[in-house]
Amino acid sequence: LLPKGDVTSEFLLVANRKGVFRVKDGQYSTVQSLLDSIPLFNAIITNRGELAIGTDGKGMFILNATGHVKAIYNEQSKLQQNQVVIPYEDSQNGLWAALFTGVSRISHNDRVGSIQKEHGLGAIVTVMKEVNNELVIGSLGGLYTLATNAKGMTQATKVSGITGSVTNLLTIDGDFLVFTDAGVFRKDNDGSVLKISEAAQISHVLVSEQDDNVIYFAKDDGSIHTASYTNRKWTDEGEFTFLPHNSHSMAQDSEGNIWAAYNGLSMIDMNTIQDSVLVSTFDSTSGYSPQMGYTEVTKIDGKVVFGTAQGIYTYDSETKRIVPSTLLGEQFTEGRHMA
């Protein structure tokens, strides 16, 4: 869903193998039918108002504001690979394509420059972020920064002291935190690195909407933890509940409850965290079936919704069931593979 975050009543929906739709007040229209059967990875809206879409096998598509294809970057246009996992735009409006191995930058004159294994970056890229005017790249092989050498070539340099595969990057209180499967690290402006937590195998990070110094994070073993970060000090409060599934996405609703999902769906009642935490895990008896597949949590107009293999769903507080959501229109309540 674009723009990212708590989207409003008009937005774009990018659906795997279904294409791109514009949704306004519950009514939808097809933006570009050329993408109908193409597997899609991710998408962003650029500062120019264009849509950059990364695909699995077809490169990166650039659509203008009216939905017409402006450009396609693939191996024929010197992109190193046709698998574009993450499109990214830096503060200079430079467009990047994160690939299975390495990254490519597309300049304003359509020249494509690639940073691959021979330039120091050969691992699968998982996340990109600009921190203090420096582009950092998280990958399965660690954290990298980019710099131009004396010959004018861009090189990737691995940040020493950060171990493991990078899963999340977060800036909080002006500090840059790196989450990997080996722990949590802080990278300072002078390049120094400090490991601030042994918490490992973190799959998702959520900053509390009530207190932006409180962090919730999910681990691969199903546990949910809380931590606080104030005055450059990380305080790990430890595990406060355990879910019978992994959680690769989380969101907090207007009542403060945390929803967590991936190969299952649960609601954590944060009002009970001081006592015994109340967790509701949904199954076929409460409207959530295994056929829904991998699930992602997001918010529309402040309401938590779930993207599944059978359409968009939400929670009905009166019946306490997971029910089809019409927030995106009837198109996405018909049981189609829209996740």
Gist?
The protein is mainly beta and 339 residues long. The protein has strands spanning 10-15, 19-24, 27-32, 40-45, 51-55, 60-63, 69-73, 84-89, 95-99, 103-106, 112-115, 125-131, 134-139, 142-148, 154-158, 166-172, 175-180, 183-187, 193-197, 202-207, 214-219, 223-230, 233-242, 247-252, 258-262, 265-269, 278-281, 296-300, 303-308, 311-316, 321-324.
Please describe what this structure looks like:
This protein has 339 residues and is mainly β. The protein contains no helices and 31 strands. It has a four-stranded antiparallel β-sheet with strand order 4-5-6-7, with no helix packed on it. The chain is globular.
Give, in spatial order, the strands making up the sheet with the most strands.
Answer: 4-5-6-7
Secondary-structure-derived class: mainly beta
Based on CA atoms alone, the radius of gyration comes out at: 21 Å
Overall helicity: under 10%
Overall residue-averaged pLDDT value:
84
Blueprint (SSEs and pairs):
Elements: E1 10-15, E2 19-24, E3 27-32, E4 40-45, E5 51-55, E6 60-63, E7 69-73, E8 84-89, E9 95-99, E10 103-106, E11 112-115, E12 125-131, E13 134-139, E14 142-148, E15 154-158, E16 166-172, E17 175-180, E18 183-187, E19 193-197, E20 202-207, E21 214-219, E22 223-230, E23 233-242, E24 247-252, E25 258-262, E26 265-269, E27 278-281, E28 296-300, E29 303-308, E30 311-316, E31 321-324
